[in-house]
Amino acid sequence: GFRTCVLAEAWVDDSPWRSLTAALQQRLRAEFHVLLESCRIGATKSEPGALRAALEALRARPQEV
């Protein structure tokens, strides 16, 4: 089967609206197998490290995506 991943350019939200951000993240977690946030993996979406983290989380090889 297929496994799905969201690689989000995210930050730690300490704004008054953080509950909305948290609700969106919960919804994404429910719909996708993996949710990776750049602020938690230490790499931006465009960096190879972020893509490696996504592949590891999905247990996939580059040629499989």
TrEMBL record:
It comes from the Eukaryota. Keywords: Hydrolase. GO terms for molecular function: hydrolase activity. InterPro entries: HAD_sf. This is HYES hydrolase. The gene is Ephx2_1.
